[in-house]
Specification:
Number of strands: 3
Helix content: 55-70%
Radius of gyration: 24 Å
Structural class: mainly alpha
Distance between the termini: 78 Å
Number of helices: 14
Order of helices and strands: HHHHEEEHHHHHHHHHH
Oligomer: single chain
Length: about 400
Amino acid sequence: MAQQQRRRRPISREEALARQQRQEELSQREQESRELAKGPIDLPFLVLVLLLTGIGLIMLLSASFPSAYYESGNPMAYFYRQAIFAVMGVAAMLLIGKINYQRFRALAKPLLFLSIILLVLVLIPHNPIALSANNATRWLGIRGTSLRFQPSEIAKVAVVIYFSDSISKKKDKMRTFRYGIAPFAIILVVLAVLVGLEPHLSGAILIMGAGAALMLVGGIHWGWVGAALSAALGMVYVVLFVIGYNTSRITYWLNPWEDAQGKGYQLAQSLLTIGSGGLLGVGLGKSRQKFLYLPEEHNDFIFAIVCEELGLIGAAIIMLLFAALILRGYWIALHARDRFGSLLVVGITTLIGLQTFLNIGVVTGLLPTTGISLPFFSYGGTALSIQLAEMGIVLSVSRQMKPTKAG
């Protein structure tokens, strides 16, 4: 049979000119984008990140050497590993800071799907690569080695990038339930349930918090925010006071001295650690509570050691550095060149701010005890590297900030 050749409609001169004009406009936009991406990074933000990372390493060395010596015979073991990941993280931050952040759009869906797959792997019974500690299975890695990571850390980044990409394209549709609420709520519920089943309540709160912040900034109606908060508070009440899940944790949070040698031990020791620091602290490296009295002294409760060694003044300075970093992040978001960049920075900054608040709240007894680390300070190489990589995304956006008007 003879092959039939399809005849193409001849292109008119006007159509050809229009196509050529569109190609030239696209080429011009790409060139402008490349030129903008060569701008200077935000120096104040970079300095704050490096300062917090450096102070965090010093405090980790001070807080961890008794436990490291007791567990491995090498008092520097935790510090060396954290320092290696810090160097890798800073290198990743500087590299990512040079990338045009528009390229991160391509990672939105793959990263979200990957995070869901990894979170499901964690929950598979008898999975040889799923690792447990303290009655929780939150890690994937190789048993008998230090190679492990928390898929929830990847899920946090995935939510920020995916939500930022999707919300930046919807604009006015964000005020509708079909486009602005339903698809994002489904994703948040799926991720929060998977993380909550580990169980990792604080991780679920961070994911929900960052997603809600992006939806709010993206333009959803305030009424939906109020409804979501009311539903969340209702669920918390039912879980804690009707079903009775983990009521002992609430009881000993309100009064840890009721069982100071048992279930209230960790919080009681944390409060003793903070109180013994006084105004000026006992001195860097001179903590007494880190000698196996305070549990998780180099991890979730490292801020208590900060208070003991540096005192109220030193702890306040560190909190001010965190506050400055968070405010600077939101300032960069306000001056971002486009909606996608602004949402990226809002999401990442909200993650850091919420995690810092929750950790300090837990350590000081303001909030019930739950496993959540202090950014840049707590032991955990993978978490530190990912946090620094997130800072690189903020620096990438800062390269293309709108010029500010001179005073």
